[in-house]
Specification:
Shape: globular
Largest sheet: 7 strands, mixed
CATH class of the largest domain: Alpha Beta
Radius of gyration: 20 Å
CATH superfamily of the largest domain: DD-peptidase/beta-lactamase superfamily
Number of domains: 2
CATH architecture of the largest domain: 3-Layer(aba) Sandwich
CATH topology of the largest domain: Beta-lactamase
Helix content: 25-40%
Strand content: 5-15%
Order of helices and strands: HEHEEHEEEHHHHHHEEHEEHEEEEH
Number of strands: 14
Strand order of the largest sheet: 3-5-4-14-13-12-11
């Protein structure tokens, strides 16, 4: 079984009352590492960690019973029947259309209440989710820990990556790889070289250490790619080979597939291809705390740990999921919301307290605003 996780807030409790009156902020290097993702994070935030304690989340009631499980397909309903204002929801869909979206899906209480596709698209159209794949990698790692194939997030990555059995790399844990604070070298040129490498596993493993783990948060694609090697060495199979029986066939993502590099390594940092409805099923698995049709595919504790701050240098990041801690990222959205996010504004949004899922696929939009879109959807809940 997965070992218990010491919450960020307990970890920092000893710092309360110390010299933390000033605000915290991302380093300049961290901000540069985020430029390709189109995400708008606060430039700074209060050092009071109590602001980031996650709400309880999902509050399902008898007045809003769950829809049938959408393994085969989603059950449709009207917004009104699911306690939503259709006119406000229409504003959200119109905003998405105006921002060159191509596939939009909105789910409430497990019912499909809103859907729209651009020209040439339909419910079966598959699109590359880019870094949405990181959240799939997090899910798969949690499954392997639950099965006992991997020990825990506190394991040294060197247990599964022999090349890292040295005094510096040996300090990197699986948690560091999930949390983006591994200390592995990053700069824009090496990032580009990584993206172009034929063997991305070898490139990532060969990176030097810039500083000890936990010192700094950086959005680091190559660090996440190390998880591809971890999973391969622990199981003898590529992550995409495990995703099919462990996850996709279970929740009905039958058309999904995962891109590999030129050496056949699963790109754990990017490029799961799926339709908007299929991506919504993945979000729904997390909304339902890892359960699917009576089977606990992923432990509730892993869902909870993945979707709260995983380190103190960026409270808006969990285990490869983006967080709305303190409602500081999206002010018009409940603080318990989180999302899987990819370049070119690919999104899976989950809002547990409102039993909401939303997916946005389509073309890049320089002016896309997560708060504007998801805020309207949340506002539509009566």
């Amino acid at each position: 079984m997965m070992k218990s996780f010491l919450p960020l807030f307990l970890l920092l409790s000893g710092l309360a009352g110390s010299a933390l009156a000033q605000e915290r902020s991302l380093s300049e290097q961290a901000q540069r590492s985020l430029e390709s993702e189109g995400l708008k994070l606060p430039l700074s935030w209060p050092s009071d960690v109590s602001l980031f304690i996650q709400p309880q989340g999902l509050q399902q009631t008898a007045q809003n019973p769950w829809a049938p499980w959408p393994t085969l397909d989603w059950t449709t309903s009207t917004p009104q029947a699911q306690g939503m204002d259709p006119q406000v929801l229409k504003q959200a869909l119109q905003y998405a259309q105006d921002q060159d979206s191509k596939g939009i899906v909105v789910i409430r209480n497990g019912y499909l209440v809103g859907e729209w596709y651009g020209q040439g698209w339909n419910k079966d159209t598959k699109e590359r989710g880019y870094s949405i794949a990181k959240s799939f990698s997090s899910c798969l790692l949690g499954m392997l820990i639950e099965q006992g194939t991997l020990g825990s997030v506190n394991d040294s990555a060197a247990l599964y990556v022999p090349e890292w059995r040295d005094s510096s790399h040996g300090l990197v844990t699986l948690r560091n790889l999930l949390s983006m604070d591994s200390g592995l070298h990053w700069d824009p040129i090496s990032e580009l070289a990584f993206l172009l490498a034929a063997d991305q596993n070898a490139f990532a493993i060969g990176l030097s250490m810039d500083h000890p783990p936990c010192d700094e948060w950086l959005y680091h694609n190559a660090a996440v790619q190390v998880l591809s090697e971890v999973i391969l060495n622990a199981t003898g199979k590529q992550p995409h080979e495990l995703a099919r029986p462990y996850l996709w066939d279970k929740i009905g993502m039958w058309g999904a597939w995962w891109k590999t590099d030129q050496r056949g390594n699963t790109m754990t940092y990017q490029s799961v291809y799926a339709s908007a409805r299929e991506f919504a099923k993945f979000g729904y698995l997390y909304l339902r705390n890892g359960e699917w049709d009576g089977e606990q595919l992923l432990s509730e504790s892993w869902v909870r740990e993945s979707t709260r701050p995983s380190q103190y240098t960026n409270p808006f990041y969990g285990y490869l999921w983006w967080l709305n801690s303190g409602s500081l990222v999206m002010p018009d959205v409940p603080a318990d919301a989180y999302m899987a996010a990819g370049a070119n504004e690919k999104r899976i949004y989950v809002v547990p307290s409102l039993a909401l899922i939303a997916v946005r696929l389509g073309n890049p939009s320089r002016s896309w605003d997560d708060n504007q879109f998801l805020g309207l959807i949340c506002q539509s809940v009566l």
